[in-house]
User: What shape does this take?
Amino acid sequence: MSFLDSLRVAFKGGAGRRVPLARSFVSPWTWAFEPAGTRAPFEYRTGVARAFLENPVAQRAVRLVAEGVGGAPLLPSDEAALALVSATSAGQSLLETLAAQLLLHGNGYVQVVRDGSGAPIELFALRPERVSVIAGADGWPASYQYKVGDKTLSLGAEDEDGWPQLIHLKAFHPADDHYGAGCLAAADQAVAIHNAASGWNRALLENAARPSGALMMEAGDGGGLTTDQFDRLKAELQGAYSGAGNAGRPMLLEGGLRWQALSLTPADMDFAELKAAAARDIALAFGVPPMLLGLPGDNTYANYREANRALWRLTLLPLAGKILSGLQEGLRPWFPKLTLAVDLDRVPALAEDRERLWAQLTAADFLSAEEKRTLLGMGDAK
Assistant: This one.
């Protein structure tokens, strides 16, 4: 802040100024200089490939939440605005895409595409890993940079007329002013454990569901194998006795060699419980009741109906409310009276809750009809 700006703030009070956002720079290579045992920082593209594309539990959890938000019924509102929100974005549901991006990345960016008259005609969800926040002198976002390949596009938060060009939705991040924290980063270790357990089980099955053994040299004249004999024996074992196709094949030994089979300890065989625990951690990170993912040992809810209701109350409705409120705020310049919200009366999983509320209000004789309609969110009667 210059000396003149300081004087101006001193005389005018400066009550309308925003506090500066100071983001300290942290090198992505900091982990390389730390003591052994630390792990590399989370990398989004690798995490998506490992979780959503390779792990069935993580993919099902994300799809369950994203498709639930995308298919949630909305309250009646401005038809043009509802058409924008309900339309597909590059062949995919806009709300479903934004829900998946917030879960995986923690950020959602919506470009407001307008026609020649300035009216919005499309809401396009940008890939969040391709968008960078460009901060101004005070640290607040001044523009956004979209980069794909060698092409870079700069999008201002607002155009020269003050109309928004991009809507930024983000999950809460306690240590970052510009970017949100996704659930995938928290589930990354559980996904790695689950994938490693699956890989180990597959390798064990390919070896006839038993561990390898050891070739023992019988004590004779005290001589061992020469280097050539050892290399030839190793090559024969790998080529003729390794893999699922050679499982159970008899081995012909000579020259004082004896095969000693090895066994797994009970702790080594406890991969099923390890895999189930990792799957429960994945479901916990994405806010999905484990019962809905078919995980054993997690019958916390009495039935699927209660688990489905908990999914809507604790995960789907808060996430849908965050997305809809962000879109509502971004579209307010064109639709001043716009209200975007989920129609709770049309959600099948919440039918019992709404029925109980209707019964309680019906029995409340001290309330007028207008007050009951207001409590139900139906507004005044026309």
